Amino acid sequence: MSSRIKRKVLREIKQHNVRFVHLWFTDILGQLKSISVTVSELPSVLDEGISFDGSSVEGFARIYESDLVALPDASTFQILPWTRNGMPVARMICDVVDANLKPYEGDPRYVLRQTVKMLRKKKLIPFIGPEIEYFYFAGSGAPEVLDAGGYFDLTPLDVGTEIREQTVLALEDMNIPVHASHHEVATSQHELDLRFDEALKIADAIMTARLVIKEVARQNGVYATFMPKPLMSQNGSGMHLHQSIFKNGKNAFYNRKDKHRMSAMAKRYVAGLLKHSREITSVTNQWVNSYKRLVPGFEAPAYICWGSRNRSALVRIPGDKPEKEVPRRVELRCPDPACNPYLALAVMLSAGLEGIERGYDMPPPVELDVYLMSDEERARHGVVCLPDSLYAAIEVTSESELVRKTLGDALFDKFIENKRIEWDNYRIQVTHYEIAKYLPVL
Question: Are strands 197-198 and 189-194 parallel, antiparallel or unpaired?
Answer without folding.
Answer: unpaired
